[in-house]
Amino acid sequence: MDGHPKRQWLVEMAHKRLLEEFGKLGVRVNEQKSRIVDLWKKESFGFVGFDFRLGRSRKGKWIAIRTPKLKSRSKLLQKLKDIFRRYKSQPIGTVIFLINPILRGWVNYFRVGNSAKRFSYIRRWAELKVRRHLQRARQKAGFGWAWWSREFIYKYLKLYNDFRIRYC
What we know:
It is a single chain. By secondary structure, the chain is mainly α. It has 2 domains: 1-36, no CATH class; 70-156, no CATH class. It contains 5 helices and 3 strands. Strands 1-2-3 form a 3-stranded antiparallel beta sheet. The chain is elongated, with a radius of gyration of 22 Å.
């Protein structure tokens, strides 16, 4: 829809139809938690860990953009941070063995939509933590950019690296 006020009746009919279909499935909508959002008025909403808002596609068309919520990203980073702290004195192989399933699960859940920027942040953060862990094990400061290549981290140490978006 284009957000024109004359088409408000379509919104009401769609809402009514959704309630009817949910009724057939035996699903009740909580009216206190539910609301109708107009994306054309720059409103957004969150649902099952995603933020939905209006934006433009690469071709310039208006689409609903789905990105992981900041809250879910923060939860992931906190979980990974706890593992890095708890296993500070352990070999890096043990730490990577523990964080890879967590990264894989989070990425596979949020793989749909427009998550590339969030994924690049997570990937960079995890790589920096691995570099810091390697440097601390050798009692050196910094991140070891001269010592540890990306190829070493992803191919030899096998840090999770499949951050590609899947388009439906």
